[in-house]
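Weekly structure sync, notes
Attendees: PL, DS, HV (note-taker this week)

Item 1: Spermidine hydroxycinnamoyl transferase
DS walked through the input record. Source organism listed as Thalictrum thalictroides. Sequence as pasted into the shared doc:
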Amino acid sequence: MFASEFNLHSTHRSIVRAADTSIPPYTLSLSNLDLLSGRSPVIVVFVYTKPQDEDFSSILEIIKTSLSQTLNYYFPFAGRVVSNPTTNDPEILCNNQGVEVIEAHANIDLASLDFYDTEKSLKHITIPLSLEIPLCMQVTSFTCGGFSISWTFDHILVDATAVNLFLVTWSKIVQKKPISNFPDHQRLILKPRSPPTYCPLLDKTFTKCSMEMILNTPMAYDNSIKRLYFIEGSDVSKLQQLASQNGEKRTKLEAISGYLWKVMATALKESDTHCKMGWLVEGRRRMLSKDISNLTGNVLSMAVGEASMEELNNSAVSKVATIAHKAISEVTTEEHFWDLIDWIEHHKPGMFLAKILIGISGPALIVSSSRQFPSMKVELGFGPPLLGTYYTSLPRLGAGFVIPQPSSRGDGSWVVFAIVWPKLAAALE
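Item 1 (cont.): predicted structure, written out as tokens:
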């Protein structure tokens, strides 16, 4: 039986700084792709059962000591977000002011937490984005001896790939293993071309915007229902087989996209004749002329596809997955990412977002693949987590958002975080 509510008390706040105090302060300028991601929270949660040999005090000591050592390599994470006095664009003052770590205690055991409804669980063991601190953490103990670790990153500093690299590096430091992928924090490699040139089609996907525009754009759907789902590995494989008919193999992401798009079509208003699906596309592997595999910034774009209700309702999953495949393929080139960098440069100054995120493109659902989510690779001294997932503290979005990620079981199963409108949640369930 899940508890409907529980009390959580913050017991201590501390600042963890990089152990190497000889690193001189400097200012880190951000790239155009960082500006596109903007200042929103990227939250990761790991939940652990009670360790055999550690109590909560020793757990905290391990976390803080190893974090301090990790910050030697991720020095900007211990800095502060400030505004450039000339451009007013955000930048990182790398001055080792430190990562904030909050210690908390929940008067409930893990078995009583309702992880399905994240508003009754994850919401309480995570912290919102800070105005200045690019990385905050909360470590929460439970009455059963289990605990959780949550990381809240400022999206303007990192994307999911950079978060994964950070966690894997931290894990290697804990295990005293050599670091194989040293982070690269400098964004100069992603500077715009001179003069900036870009494909006009980018104007269909992205827009210059203001905070007022973001806050006041009417939303046709209330994307505020937050859920955590589990999908067995065998079901993921069956779905991929279903989407890969007619001799064309589809990825797992394309397969689940085809399925979700069809379900989405059943959860719209009668007046809706078309709907869109978006995909966050990671660009490090696309930039073939540059080695940016270890870049710790943002290298993301948005692919967008559109289909009619008639097409979605009458087509097999394989055909809808093919529509997804074609839309994603349009942005998986190096030229696209250079065009996007130049598009932002041309439209400066200001804020920039994909139109689908704001909700001005009609009903939409975004799928963000986290297939490299490292829940099985991260060993902080406590064994693999019982649960690992991405999460957001944002109350609602302009579009539905779904994040499939490998579960910590390592058997091909998925944990899926979703923030959707009520009718879509009901259709999925």
